[in-house]
Amino acid sequence: MTEPCFSIRRARPADLDRLVELCAEHAAFEKADFDPQGKAEALARMIHPPGPDLKPRLEIWVVDNGRGAVGFVSVGREASTWQARDYLHMDCLYLRPEARNRGLGEKLLQTIADHARSLGLTEIQWQTPTWNEGAIRFYRRHGAVSKDKLRFTWTVGAG
Predict the structure, then answer these.
(1) 124-128 contacts: CB < 8 A, separation 24 or more?
(2) 29 lies in a domain?
(3) Is the separation of the CB atoms in 39 and 25 below 8 Å?
(4) 52: pLDDT confidence band, cut at 50, 70 and 90?
């Protein structure tokens, strides 16, 4: 059996259903709830916003094995009050098990580092669960530094 050939490219509209599947897998891996309802349409609006003056809220690159996406990284531009500058926020980096340990995570990190530089940004921030020791080792091996903080979410009603 031949080894799959992987490529990294920007997500396209045809990838959206697979991206939702990958998000569900990522959420399950991180022991989080995930409802796929309406996600493909919402992601479409975020990466390809309607209107000529709107910029994408989220940018996604996928790892493609020739048969479709088997991983992705997503980022968005954010601002830091303390640093008084913008940074790139990596929201997700996920690879299916068959795509792991092939250097693809490193290539995804390099892809977003190149993207940050193209935007004139010098920092990328993200979080990972404290129990995800494999991810923590991976990020530290690539020079990332962790900060102890708790991440909170607050669901506010519509009215």
Answers:
(1) 124/75, 124/87, 124/88, 124/89, 124/90, 125/78, 125/87, 125/88, 125/89, 125/90, 126/89, 126/90, 126/91, 126/93, 127/151
(2) yes
(3) no
(4) confident
**CA–CA dist 121, 123 (Å, integer):** 6
The arithmetic mean of pLDDT across residues 118-137, rounded, is 93
C-alpha distances in angstroms, 8 versus 5, 89, 107?
10, 19, 8
Q: What is the side-by-side strand order in the sheet with 124-125?
A: 7-10, 59-64, 69-80, 85-95, 124-125
Quick check: 54 pLDDT over 70?
yes
What is the span of the domain harbouring residue 82?
Answer: 7-141
Tokens describing residue 123: 């920092």
pLDDT exceeds cutoff 90 at 97: yes
CATH of the domain at 65: 3.40.630.30
Average pLDDT of the chain is 92
